[in-house]
Every structure is written in C-alpha cells, then in structure tokens.
Amino acid sequence: MTARVLALVGPTAAGKSTIALETAEALGAEIVAVDAFTVYRGMDVGTAKPDAAARARVPHHGLDLLEPEEECSVEWFQSRARAAIDEVLARGRLPLLVGGSGLYFRAAVDDLAFPPTDAAVRDRLLAAHRDDPRAAHADLARADPQAAARIDPENLRRTVRALEVRELTGQPFSAWRTAWETYEAIYPGLVVVGVERDRRDLAARIGARVEVMHAEGLFDEARALADRALSRTARQAIGYAEAFAHLAGELTVEQALDRIAVRTRRFAARQQRWFAADPRVAWHDARSAADALRRAGQEGRPA
Asked: What residues pair up with 284 in beta bridges, in sequence order?
C-alpha cells in the first residue's frame, strides 16, 4: 500500500523546493505548500515562491490564495490545506506537503483545535493590565495554574491570550493543549522526511538566497506593496519588513539585506527546533531526502 500523504519539512533555504519538485515529478504527486506567506498574491520574490515553470511541471496547491491586506490565520490555513489534500487524494493522486512552518504543518495534519478569539475582549484585557503584566499573570495563575506555569510572567501578550480564551469559552487555556502534546496524524500512512544541513552550509545558502532576492527585485516588489493596507502578517514577513524600512529611508540597501540574512538565520534555527520535537520526522541530508521520499511514495512505508 502506498503512503497516502508525504511531507517534506525543514528550515528555510535547505533545498526543499528543488527536492520536492523532482520527487513529485517522479511519483506523479502534487505539492501542497505549507507556508504562512506564499498564500499571498504579489509576494513572490521575498517568499521564494515556486515560479510559473515549476507550477507547469507539477500542480501546486496553497499558493496565491489571499490579498496581502487579508490576515492569514492558522484556522483558515488549516481548512484550506486539508481541502487541498483531500482533493488530491480524491483524484487518486499523492499529496506532498512541503514547507518550513511547523505550526501550519501540524495544523494541516494533526487533530488540533484552535480556541476562539475576540479583538474587543483582548483589547480590554490588554488595556486593563498594560502597566502590570505580573498582575495579569497572577490572575491567570488563580484561574488556570497549568497555563500560567508555561508562560513568562512578563509576557503580557501570551498571558492575555490565555485569559481571553478562559473568558470566551469558560474552559482553561491549558485544556486546549492536550492534542499538541501528541503527534497523531489524521492521515493514515503519513510519512515525514526532514532535510537537514550543516549550520555553516545553511548560513551560506541563506546568504546566497538573500542576494538572489535582491537581484530578482525584492525592493521593487516591496515598493509595489508599500502603500497598501497590508495585514500584520504580510507587513512583518521576513524580507518585506526590512525592504519597507529601506524604502522609508531607515536602512541602506546593505543594512536591509544584512538584517534579512540575520533574521532568516534565526528563523531557520527556530524551525529546526520545532521539527526536532516531532518524532515522526525522519532526517536526511539533501541527497538522501529525495530517495527517502521516493521509497515512501512507492512502497508506502517510512523511509
């Protein structure tokens, strides 16, 4: 029996897109992007979005779904990603999930529920506790000691989020964590391959990617977006935030590119930590990752 769903994960600039494209062609698979930023139209260079030639070779899903003014929530992405996966499966094809967003990956494949949010409630709680985060944390400790134990008393944003969920649902924020502590996919036969690279190699690849982004017109792309009412997610995307700062005269080109590289390296480190915690990920170097995916797709067993 062939694996029903494959996934290729790992840090940015590790080479996932090239591996995925070649593997999907070999297996007759279709790619489902697992990324918080390639969903946005007009944000192509800074997200290293697959180009028209790649999409002509292999069907891609999850790209260009939102305008940059729209917020991309995890819940919204979860429903769209699962719809794409189910559509591919219904046609008898093999879905290959590809991306570096650990949160979005887990939202797509695991039975995770997300507590509701209410901006008015959140703003009221923030205003009430803005000057005293520890008092807010003390309130949370009385109502939900398990959640409080996981949150830094100085982290007002996370404390308020826990209080918000408590007020909206009547349930402790900690009650929503149960599914997060297990790794049980909703798709039988899920096989997850991770691409790992030496830290120096990855840093060099990130630097090269930033230079390519510059050459391919990142600042021109940012200029076309700068006057639009971008969502918080889009405006703070790595590469774009720095490009906007350059266009505003706050950074030189060199400073902006350097900050993009630094921020990307830090993001890659967070990605690696996130996926390292997932016991389903079988780690391979770039060369053997493609072979592992092909074997899993052809034989239906973990590589």
From this structure: 195
